[in-house]
Specification:
The complex is a heterotrimer. By secondary structure, chain A is mostly helical. Helices cover 74% and strands 2% of the residues of chain A. Chain A has one domain. Chain A has 13 helices and four strands. In chain A, strands 1-2 form a two-stranded antiparallel sheet. Chain A has a two-stranded antiparallel sheet with strand order 3-4. In chain A, a hairpin with a 3-residue loop joins strand 1 and strand 2. Chain B has one domain. Chain B has eleven helices and two strands; from the N terminus they run ααααββααααααα. The longest helix of chain B has 31 residues. The radius of gyration of chain B is 20 Å and the shape is globular. Chain C folds into two domains: 162 residues, P-loop containing nucleotide triphosphate hydrolases (Rossmann fold); 76 residues, no CATH class. In chain C, a hairpin with a 2-residue loop joins strand 9 and strand 10. The chains are: A mainly alpha, B mainly alpha, C alpha/beta. At the A-B interface, helix 5, helix 10 and helix 12 of A face helix 4, helix 9 and helix 11 of B. Bound molecules: adenosine-5'-diphosphate and magnesium ion (MG). Adenosine-5'-diphosphate binds next to strand 2 and helix 1 of chain C.
Chain lengths: 331, 304, 248
């Protein structure tokens, strides 16, 4: 087993290589005549943000939220509603004007989703276990039906965002440009998560997952830390939703559907629960599976089901653990 | 007034269907500690098996045993192959593994039976309506569903409270380790409970045939409602499942029936209808959230 | 000086009265042993004192101030700490992490997101000292899941001490230990005696008589006697209820 400095050097080298590959990706895709890979990669990055955020609550904090689609979808709707007001020259709730500035819409999406997570978390965290799973699902369902019924925001059909948000004057119509926006956001999120999980806060959160009784006995008030983690997690999911609305140039209640919560959980567990890069691996694997299997058969979920089942039942720790085991064997 | 009464009956009928699913789900969770998202798939399997047999033979009386047998067989197979491995896992693994089962079942049924919804006619003997009070005629079939549900509820009550098997089931729900320590063949008990739950889900599926379109996705719709029922009633409690199911069934039905009308008093028609539909769909979730906030373990918790 | 004063404390589980009108005092610096047969309500009493179980009646005072309305974490901040009969540790973390987290909790809130906690000397140094004092220096980096039962019991004590308690509530610290480990635990507690007051729940009578200044006896939730160790040893009621039962 390599000692600590060597290991952290190897980790650093791995991250650097990953970063280089991600930066090179759009150029390589164009060069190889596969420009369709670029939005696909954006999708992976966006889901990686959402899954990694969910993982903060679920993997590190042990809070099995079955309602993260609420935060993801709401983030998307923030972009949609602001855009609708912007092009219609109207005011949102009659209060403030709309916008298509990425640097406004993204933080606002995080703020709004975070506020929702604060409300949902404050109530849901009074329960635990299966009740927590179900109450988070219930709140997400409420939001789903709310948006289905809001004709002003398109109801069932959702809202079309005809043109992607801009960064000052920089237009993101070009898929590669937008990919770099996503990459920048994902980098920020992963760096933030990395700092959070090794910080004092992160250690408390991990302790709460392992044994709440113990944490109380050393003088920690569990509720506020769990709630804070839940809010951060919701904010990350909201950011991902806002990016997704831009990528697809469309938001609809689909983003709020409970199966979306399920998909995010699948990505986390596919990649590796409670690991930093697991959700990225999981998102990549999920999207890759979806893409290749759909090309092969319309019944792609028939193949996804057994794969997921095997991962849950027989691999401990998902792809992340698998990679670690493989690289461990090599060295 | 008769309108309200009619909707109340509709609510009870819906509640009874929910109870058939919730009873199995709550026992499975209470005794084995497994969150089984694929319970709704058993309902779908029962409905499809019955619909296909009914279409082939034209007889719902043959379709009934077919639906029950299919659901029970699939359920026991599911327990043997997958769920058994999940008893000692955490909730997350259970949720995902059974979510995977949903994907598999939905696609398998799509491939076998196609995307087109199937429709099933009620048996001739139960066709038509009768006048139950002056001015209110009500479909006999729906009354029969209510009757079947109540009979099952009473049967389950007697089974759980008056028989040795029931004693084990009750003990299993509250003192899992003690039952293990008593040397009871816990695997047999588990498979039996699971089979019973699957049978009830299949029964609900068969009965749903003439009421709803039989289609892929019907399982999830009712599954989420069933979870709401189980959580409101208190996990592991048959009594909780019964009252929870009736409350959810009635509240959901009444909201859907009357909320759009009420909203139309204050806003334009189409908007009121859309908002009313959305808000009434939210109603039961709101109810559940309120119950959990007041009683975090539900109304009749089994693990007191 | 009275540090802890309990008056009329009660806890019911349905029909079962687990602690029934318990009144008891612990003086500053005193080692007060609490003995009684299994199921007497000793663990329940400790959980009520620390605030992990709500009480159904009575009051608890620390330094004359009511603390029974406070949450567990607030009581810990006021100087109460407990150990667990069935160890409650963070099994995925290392020995040092477990202690350092208690040090961290003592330093105030943990809404700090930027610095890497495992590199903060202000957490690691005091934690390392406590780990060494518990005789676990060689195991500081080991995962708790890999510890022996005896090592876990020692870690329980180290974690409790890291919260900086004035009163330690010890729930059967010797249970499950071998003779040598037991002796080491008695020695560790003896070193603390005088500095930190203790409410010591223990079945090992040799340990109790070696450490305790006073002994109270709990039977079926009721306190049947309190007194000097020798007096308790000679008390006929205590013999009947407890020592005579062969439970010791
Ligand atoms: N959470 C609980 N629910 C119901 N009964 C309990 C609970 N905890 C303890 N008891 C009961 O209370 C009594 C006292 O238990 P306990 O305090 O653990 O005793 P001791 O620590 O003295 O052995 C026992 O009869 C036990 O079964
Ligand atoms: Mg005890």
């Amino acid at each position: 087993m390599p000692d600590a400095p060597q290991r952290s050097f190897a980790a650093l080298a791995g991250v650097a290589a990953l970063m280089a590959a991600l930066i090179a990706l759009p150029f390589l895709a164009k060069w190889a005549g596969q420009p369709a890979l670029i939005p696909l990669a954006s999708r992976i990055l966006i889901y990686a943000i959402a899954a990694a955020s969910l993982n903060l609550a679920l993997g590190y904090g042990g809070m099995v939220s079955f309602g993260h689609a609420a935060f993801f979808g709401l983030g998307g709707y923030v972009v949609g509603v602001l855009y609708q007001a912007y092009v219609g020259d109207a005011r949102v709730f009659g209060l403030f004007p709309g916008t298509n500035q990425l640097l406004v819409t993204l933080p606002l999406a995080m703020l709004v989703s975070g506020a929702l997570a604060l409300a949902i978390g404050a109530l849901s965290l009074r329960t635990a276990g299966v009740q927590f799973i179900m109450i988070t699902l219930a709140f997400a369902q409420m939001l789903f039906y709310l948006f289905v019924s809001l004709k002003a925001y398109g109801g069932d059909d959702g809202l079309i965002v005809r043109r992607r948000n801009v960064l000052f004057d920089l237009d993101a119509r070009d898929d590669a440009t937008f990919y770099f926006f996503c990459l920048a956001a994902a980098t920020l999120v992963f760096v933030a998560l990395w700092r959070i999980v090794v910080s004092r806060f992160g250690l408390i959160l991990g302790g709460l997952r392992q044994n709440e009784t113990r944490m109380e006995a050393i003088g920690v008030a569990p509720y506020r830390y769990k709630l804070a983690a839940f809010v951060l997690s919701g904010m990350g999911a909201g950011l991902a939703g806002a990016l997704m609305a831009n990528l697809l140039r469309f938001v609809s209640p689909d983003m709020l559907h409970w199966t979306k919560s399920g998909e995010l959980m699948i990505m986390v567990i596919l990649g590796g629960v409670g690991t930093l890069f697991g959700p990225l691996l999981g998102a990549a694997a999920f999207i890759a599976l979806e893409t290749f299997l759909t090309a092969w058969t319309e019944h792609w979920q028939l193949a996804l089901g057994p794969i997921l089942l095997v991962v849950v039942l027989f691999t401990r720790g998902g792809l992340h653990a698998l990679l670690a085991r493989l690289s461990g064997r090599r060295s | 007034m008769t309108l309200v009464l009619e909707q109340l009956l509709n609510g009870v009928q819906y509640g009874v269907m929910l109870f058939l699913l919730a009873a199995g789900l709550t026992l499975i969770f209470g005794i084995m500690g497994v969150i089984n998202l694929a319970h709704g798939s058993l309902y779908m399997v029962g409905a499809y098996a019955a619909a296909v047999v009914a279409a082939k033979t034209g007889s719902l009386w043959l379709a009934l045993p077919a639906g029950l047998a299919a659901a029970a067989a699939v359920g026991m197979a599911m327990e043997l192959v997958v769920l058994r491995r999940l008893y000692d896992r955490d909730h997350l693994d259970q949720v995902l593994a059974t979510f995977a089962l949903i994907l598999i079942f939905n696609q398998a049924v799509t491939i076998l039976a196609g995307r087109q919804p199937l429709f099933v006619a009620a048996p001739a003997a139960l066709n038509g309506s009768i006048e139950i009070v002056a001015g209110l005629t009500y479909p006999i079939y729906r009354l029969a569903v209510i009757a079947v549900g109540l009979v099952v509820a009473i049967g389950l009550y007697l089974l759980v409270n008056r028989t040795r098997a029931g004693m084990l089931v009750r003990a299993g729900a509250t003192h899992r380790d003690m039952v293990r320590a008593l040397g009871v063949d816990i695997r047999l008990l588990y498979t039996a409970v699971f089979g019973l739950g699957a049978l009830l889900a299949g029964l609900a599926g068969v009965m749903a045939g003439p009421l709803l379109a039989v289609q892929v996705g019907m399982g999830e719709q009712i599954l989420i409602m069933t979870f709401v029922v189980v959580v409101i009633g208190g996990v592991g409690s048959i009594r909780g499942a019964f009252f929870g199911a009736l409350v959810v069934g009635v509240v959901d039905t009444l909201l859907r029936a009357f909320l759009p009308g009420l909203l139309r008093q204050v806003m334009s028609g189409p908007e009121a209808d859309a908002l009313g539909a959305g808000l009434s769909s939210m109603g039961v979730y709101l109810l559940m959230a309120i119950v959990l906030l007041i009683r975090p373990k539900g109304l009749f918790p089994a693990h007191a | 000086m009275t540090l802890l004063a309990i008056a009329g404390l009660q806890k019911r589980f349905g029909g079962l009265v687990a602690t029934d009108d318990v009144s008891l005092e612990v003086q500053a610096g005193e080692v007060h042993a609490l003995i009684g047969p299994n199921g007497a309500g000793k663990t329940t009493l400790i959980a009520q004192l620390i605030g992990q179980l709500a009480h159904d009646g009575g009051e608890i005072r620390l330094d004359g101030e009511r603390i029974d309305a406070l949450a567990a974490h607030q009581r810990v901040r006021r100087g109460l700490a407990r150990t667990f009969q069935i160890t409650q540790l963070l099994t995925d973390y290392s020995v040092l992490d477990n202690v350092a987290l208690a040090v961290q909790a003592r330093q105030g809130h943990s809404f700090r997101f930027l610095r890497e906690a495992r590199r903060e000397a202000s957490l690691r140094a005091p934690a390392l000292a406590l780990v060494a004092e518990a005789g676990l220096a060689a195991r500081a980096g080991a995962r708790v899941a890999d510890l022996s039962q005896g090592e876990r019991k020692q870690l329980e004590l180290a974690v409790a001490l890291a919260t900086g308690p004035r009163l330690l509530l010890l729930d059967e610290p010797m249970a499950g230990l071998g003779p040598a480990e037991s002796a080491a635990m008695v020695e560790a507690l003896a070193r603390l005696k005088g500095r930190i007051a203790m409410l010591l729940v223990e079945h090992d009578m040799d340990a109790v008589f070696a450490l305790a200044d006073r002994v109270s006896v709990l039977v079926y939730g009721r306190l049947v006697a309190t007194g000097a160790p020798q007096a308790i040893r000679d008390d006929a009621r205590v013999r009947d209820a407890y020592l005579g039962s062969g439970d010791a």
